[in-house]
Amino acid sequence: MKHSLIILLAGVALLSSCKSKKGGTATPVYAPITEAVFAPGHIEAGGQFTLTALNDGYITDVPAKEGDTVTDGQIIFKQDHTTAAIAQRSATENLAIARQNAADNSAVLNQLEQQLHTATEKLANDLSLRDRNARLYATRSVAKTDYDNAELAYQSSLHNVEQIKQNITATKLSLQQTLINTRKEQETAIANSSYYDIKSPGNYTVYNLLKKKGDLVRKGDALATLGHAGSMLITLSIDEASITKIKTGQTVLTELNTEKGKTYTGHVSKIYPSFDEKSQAYTVEATFDTIPPGLMNGTLLQSNIIVAHKDKAMLVPAACVNPDGRAIVKRGKQTDTIRLKTGIISTEYVEVLGGINIDDKLIKAY
């Protein structure tokens, strides 16, 4: 992208101009000079962004229209969500079953509690028999084998009771884990189903609807352009050679393509820090001092960013100065080629910082 410098002169007449013909002469003059960087651009709504699809599916309805002001959470697009609805219903049913199984009076836990009750009763009975055989064995009324068998039965019952208790604890934990997982699956299914209703994330104006009813969209496809209607911005593209001259707060003079010949004043408000590969330029934003009435989003424009100004500068016509700064200077009867120290350069004029005097004459030779 090319850039240009605009030189603004006030109350100056170059009496002898190099523009007339090759070999003509011109005398340097002092005049105000302003340097500006030219930048094309367009109008963009503040906070403008692209709304995208979160799932694959057909568009079944578009409740919003271009130009509408939508509120936070308002539906702009609806997608077919048959599969998501089935998944949500299945997840809800699984959650109900998991809750029932995890309840204290569930069939699974009741069965284990019944096993524990039976085992506890058997443990009490085996303990009584063991104690009885122990007393009888102490009086040699029963054989040692009978006592050992009673002890073995008691220990087996004791182990069985502990095992059932551990089983109940493990089963409760497993059922609770299943409940947590099924609850998460249901919440995920509800969230996924809600993504098929594409909603506005805030209060915005709908500028462009990029899809219509019946269109098949894929996840990530652009659906609409939204932004704040009350804060229209000037978005400009700046070439690499000029970006270092741009600073926030600089004055911006803008001409809209819809209003040729009329200039609006604004100021640089933001300089994006990265190079845009697509446009091969840097992006700069500016705000209007007064927003033009009826301003339309996307309007093309041209701007000049004022990057430097001098109230008094020595100027000579650009046609008298070689691109490398050399100029043919006539002083009296002597003519010399001199390398000038230059400042601001445009297609029309060159600011001279050193090398000639105000009385010197420059010859058009380039």
TrEMBL record:
<keyword id="KW-0175">Coiled coil</keyword>
<dbReference type="GO" id="GO:0015562">
    <property type="term" value="F:efflux transmembrane transporter activity"/>
</dbReference>
<protein>
    <submittedName>
        <fullName>HlyD family efflux transporter periplasmic adaptor subunit</fullName>
    </submittedName>
</protein>
<dbReference type="GO" id="GO:1990281">
    <property type="term" value="C:efflux pump complex"/>
</dbReference>
<feature type="coiled-coil region">
    <location>
        <begin position="95"/>
        <end position="129"/>
    </location>
</feature>
